[in-house]
Amino acid sequence: MEKKAVVLLHGFGEDSSIWSSFVSAFQDEYLVLTPDYSRIDSFKNIEDYADFVYEEIKAKGVEKCAVIGHSMGGYIALALAEKHPEIMRSLGLFHSTAFEDSEERKQMRLKNVSFLEKNGTEAFIRNFTPNLYAEHFVKQYPEKISNHIESSSTLPVTALIAGMNAMRLRPDRKHVLKAAKYPVLFIIGELDKSVPPEDSKAQMMIPKFFSVSILDQVAHMGMVEEPESTLATLEKFLKK
């Protein structure tokens, strides 16, 4: 029997290696795709990222798939679902949201672009990365934060700027959730500073078929902060 396909989309300031432990867990049962757009600087908007992911999926001969997106990966997953609903078996928003950026957040992203242009990747990643994690996790596991910083410090500054601008300009996509004829999973971190938990919770009831996992002690990096529980949540969702 042909394996069902699972597409794991990484977030901003990381690459597809963020999913390595999940790939190991899933690959016996599923065809796992982890498109990597972390070094591409030619995309103008989230739709361009979604087109890239779609081509990667079709290149593997996949007709239908579960698409799980972390943070910016969730924005890409929603754009993909809007353009190609026929390929969607299910959708997972992993610390992500269908809402567009608030004006305050748009201004913050512009400041981040200015910082990147002036200071480069390494300085930005060093400042940016610890805020993705819960404070207690940063104190308890400094080596994991260091690993993330070291891994992401090699990303091209132009690619980070492209991603930041694409996130800032993305439209609201609540209508994609409302129209979904497939199950939608929300993984929410109560301590998330990047995607406000109240936004994540406000979108939960939009799709007709949904599951939710709310993580009390997690910020924005559930696959690192609580790998066992987030993996178990995904496994249960995919089996459904």
UniProtKB/TrEMBL annotation:
Signal peptide: none annotated. SUPFAM superfamilies: alpha/beta-Hydrolases. Pfam families: Abhydrolase_1. Residues 5-208 form the AB hydrolase-1 domain. It comes from the Bacteria. Transmembrane segments: none annotated. This is Pimeloyl-ACP methyl ester carboxylesterase. It comes from Pseudarcicella hirudinis. The lineage of its organism: Bacteria, Pseudomonadati, Bacteroidota, Cytophagia, Cytophagales.
